[in-house]
Amino acid sequence: MPEPDSRVARKMGGVMSKLVLGVAAGVLSQASAGPLELHAGTSMHRDFGPTSVQEATIALRRGESADIAITQHGIDVVVRMRSPNGTLLDEIDSPNGRNGDEPVSIRARTSGIYRIHVQPFSASEPQGSIDVRVTALRSVAQTAQIARQRTELRRAAADWLRQNDAAIPRISAIEAETSIPPLDRLAADARVVGLGEATHGSVELNDVRLALVKRLVERHGFRLIALEDSVARWRALEPYVAGSTARPALPTEWGWIGRRARNQLLEWARSWNLSHPNDRVRLIGTDPQDNPYWKQQLPPLIGHAYGEDVAKAWQSHQAELAAADEQTQVFGDSSVASATRDFVQSMLARIVVDAPILRKRLGDSDYGLALDMVGQLAAFADFNSGGTLSKSRDWYMALSVLNAIGPDSKAIYWGHNAHVSASGSETVGALLRGSLGCGYRALATSFGSGGFLAQLPNDPTDRLRSHAVSTSDEESIESVLAQVRSGMHVAAWTCGQKPDRPAWLADLHKMRWVGGIYAPDSAVSASYRPYRLTDSFDAVVYVPVVRAEADPGDRPLVPARKR
């Protein structure tokens, strides 16, 4: 499952859930403080709670600039910035949770009063506080000088990347070209390669990743492809992928994310396996979400294993699990009560401990099925419950990859850039890097402008819509990639320390990032997240322009949960 747009939805214990950003306007107005006029050196501290709002204004002449820091203490806030005519210029919600800075940078295109609005991320935020500080206020001349310096820094970054970059004349060349040095060096040194995407719904990004998979399999000996997708659905397709059955026993159509490329990958892997029966490729899902099978298969096994009383206890938690799992298809409320999490985890421990008896009672096959299904549900309940010791969805996806690779096998992890990234707080990539060192290499894909498919946020029918974003922000990573060379290309660098890299690449900069949810009226910044390119990734494929995938048109309606 994808990462949602953080302006509209946020993980709940590692799972995407819809959250309405705004609180009722009447409540906000009652709790609002008066506007704060910002000047050079302004610094303010204020207690801030779930119904608080802070408005601030700053007067700038055309060509001037200002940097303002909104520091969060124990509460997650969203900052919106508007131009003198009321246009939304930016919306800032950094991935730092409830502590740290939300940086606001204004470069005045017109003279007038610029407005800043601060509010809690949601009405469920705890009581905390914020600081508002003007960290820089620059004249026209100073702003122009800073702009020239930043231009030189971006040029130096592009020059450095160009040293280890290769052109890709067309997507088919990724599979066909005899030599693509940056890719081949990365593949030769890697045990696991993470293949990312900046959006889940762009044609060229899906095609690039599929072509990369084929190259890694055909030329570099990778034989396991682990997808950010349902464990259960891909397990059901294993006989078809292996070439053992003439056609899938179960539908291959589910979800909208990457459906076209996913089906092409499925058929290509099957074709490979039919042609290489002694050198097969495996496709596995890594995500414990979206399991349509356990509701029918598991209850009889539990009753057979432990009797009627335990079966009744299981039924009391089954509705909670089923309702939560159903919501993952539409980024809904997939939270799981702590009592259900505890029950499922206790059941898992019981099944493991009781293995000798249960194997005799159920048979090896049914025992393995029960153990696997309860294990997947325990993981799902864990990262959806938000408990003190709960692990994240990324944690369980990383475990799936590590458990599936053999001592000598080479694997591909197929996921969003957000999961593939080797930096961050327990991303799949960071966990794989921690386990495999530089045996894990992260490859991002990104783009300059174009379209993507995503779900409308907080929409009663969870509709999909195509969106478009324009040319990259001048301070974005994509703006530097566009300078490296024209057209599509790939750059890769050495894993680990990079003493010769320019300072610009060592700092946080915006990089294209669109999750499964996106609002049509989102600010430009909604399609970016901050990354240190050469720390988070080991390579990047840049595509100048992308197109939106087609809406499959058959998405099921999943009503919102009533709690």
How would the blueprint of this fold be written?
Elements: E1 9-12, E2 15-18, H1 25-31, E3 36-37, E4 43-48, E5 54-60, E6 65-73, E7 77-82, E8 88-92, E9 99-107, E10 112-120, E11 128-138, H2 140-162, E12 165-167, H3 172-176, H4 181-189, E13 192-195, H5 203-220, E14 224-230, H6 231-236, H7 238-242, H8 259-275, E15 282-287, H9 294-306, H10 308-327, H11 338-353, H12 355-362, H13 364-385, H14 393-404, E16 411-414, H15 417-420, H16 428-436, E17 440-455, E18 464-469, H17 477-484, E19 489-492, H18 503-506, E20 509-512, E21 528-531, H19 533-536, E22 539-546
Parallel strand pairs: 3-5, 13-16, 13-17, 14-15, 14-16, 17-22
Antiparallel strand pairs: 1-2, 4-11, 5-10, 6-9, 6-11, 7-8, 7-10, 12-19, 17-18, 19-22, 20-21
Helix pairs in contact: 2-17, 9-10, 9-13, 11-13, 12-13, 14-16
If you had to describe this structure to a student in words, what would you say it looks like?
It is a single chain. With 563 residues, the protein is α/β, with parallel strands linked by helices. Strand 1 (9-12) and strand 2 (15-18) form a beta hairpin. Helix 2 (140-162) packs across helix 17 (477-484), helix 9 runs antiparallel to helix 10 (308-327) and helix 12 (355-362) crosses helix 13. The radius of gyration is 25 Å and the shape is globular.
Question: What's this, in brief?
Answer:
The protein folds into 3 domains: about 30-140, Jelly Rolls (Sandwich); about 160-220 and about 410-545, EreA-like (biosynthetic domain) (EreA/ChaN-like  fold, 3-Layer(aba) Sandwich); about 295-395.
How many E-type strands?
22
What is the overall number of helices? 19
The biggest beta sheet, please?
A: 9 strands, mixed
Low-confidence stretches: 4-32
The CATH class of the largest domain:
Alpha Beta
Q: Indicate the structural class.
A: alpha/beta
Count of all domains: 3
The CATH superfamily name of the largest domain is EreA-like (biosynthetic domain)
What is the CATH architecture assignment of the largest domain? 3-Layer(aba) Sandwich
Q: What is the helix fraction of residues, given as a range?
A: 25-40%
Shape: globular
- The CATH topology annotation of the largest domain reads as EreA/ChaN-like  fold
Strand content bin: 15-25%
The average pLDDT is 90
- Taking all Cα atoms into account, the compactness measure Rg is 25 Å
Alpha-carbon distance between the two ends: 23 Å
